[in-house]
Amino acid sequence: MNVIWRTILVHLQARLRVRRGRTLPLDGISRLRLTTLPTDIDILRHMNNGRYLSLFDLGRWDLLVRTRLWDAMRSEGWYAVVAAETVAFRRSLQLWQRFDVESRMLGHDDVMPRGEVGHERQPASGSAGAVEDQERTPCAAAHQRDVAAVDGEFRR
User: What is the pLDDT of residues 10-60, one digit of tens each?
Assistant: First the structure.
């Protein structure tokens, strides 16, 4: 509930994008531009470690809605649950710093889909290039085939 207003806003914006025809394929990448707010920081004046996971949920919501998986899941009575997460912190996000959250499906197995969510900090004004690059899992290419095979099942 700590990011409920952001969640509602992301969900509504994603539905609006779908209505305007800006859907994503199942192997597409969802990108959200966010800003570190005062409610995101801790006593050390950088984003709280636990807040990253909450903000990554926003990326998953955007991905689910824009790939139309959310509609398919709701029609079956399903809902999204994160079964496991692994986070590697590299650099801090400071107050008011802008960053992108990128989410994508990697594939699925007999039990659940597999996904990847990460963030990239926006360069400070006057600096060239991104401050941090995304690290991709080595198994992403192998899972692309699975995503392509499933794509037809969820598209309506």
Answer: 999 999 999 999 999 988 999 999 999 999 999 999 999 889 989 999 999
pTM score over 0.85:
no
CA atoms within 13 A on the CB side of 23: 16
Q: How many domains does the chain have?
A: 1
The range of the structural domain enclosing residue 37 comes to: 4-154
Check which CATH number belongs to the domain holding 109 and give it. 3.10.129.10
- Quote the tokens at residue 23: 């859907």
Helices (H), the chain: 4-19, 49-66, 69-76, 140-154
User: E strands of 2-56, at which residues?
Assistant: 29-35
